[in-house]
Specification:
187 residues; four-stranded antiparallel β-sheet; globular; 4 helices; alpha+beta; 45% strand
């Protein structure tokens, strides 16, 4: 994933598969590291987490805005999955907060490509993007994109680099693609 972030890659797509016809349709193109999809409770829109840009995009599927894309939320870090809960709100896992360096490199792909050529290792590059200290955050968004709740471990003492937050039976189940744990948080 560091290669995608550093290279400025925008080849991501959102596709729809029709089970009856077995056809695939591309709904969105040119996405910067799409990483998580969630359908609204009423099925009128779908959300896509765009990791490199630290935002959640909203593609309208029905109604007067069908086919239109909006920015649903701008986040203080790199979203790594988005999940809807039973009330129709959305939990977004933030893998790391975006450091100033990370934001600068993300908006200047030539800088990321230069770093790749220099030959930094994964751990060094990841640390520079994560602000040099482990971090964990989960953000709960309304169905309008408003921030309802933020859970954060700024020092990474309990959780680090989370990639998944799933609400079930009054608890948040939290996982990481890099760390060997499952966290459970009572709501």
């Amino acid at each position: 994933f560091m290669l995608v972030l550093l290279s400025g890659d925008k080849t991501g797509r959102l596709m729809k598969y029709n089970k009856s016809t077995k056809e695939v349709t591309v709904l969105l193109r040119g996405l910067a590291f799409p990483n998580g999809v969630a359908l609204s409770k009423d099925g009128s829109f779908v959300l896509v987490a765009e990791t490199t840009t630290c935002r959640i995009l909203q593609l309208w599927l029905r109604g007067p805005k069908a086919g239109h894309v909006d920015t649903f939320a701008v986040l203080p870090g790199f979203p790594d999955n988005v999940r809807r809960n039973s009330q129709g709100h959305f939990w977004v896992a933030l893998h790391a907060k975006g450091s100033r360096f990370a934001k600068w490199v993300s908006s200047n792909p030539w800088a990321g490509k230069a770093l790749l050529k220099i030959g930094f290792n994964f751990k060094q590059l990841h640390s520079s993007f994560a602000g040099w200290k482990p971090h964990a955050a989960a953000v709960k968004l309304s169905d309008k994109g408003e921030i309802l709740e933020v859970l954060e471990d700024c020092d990474g003492k309990t959780l680090k680099f989370i990639s998944e937050v799933e609400e079930k039976d009054g608890k948040l189940w939290i996982a990481s693609v890099l760390m060997p744990f499952i966290g459970i948080y009572g709501l």
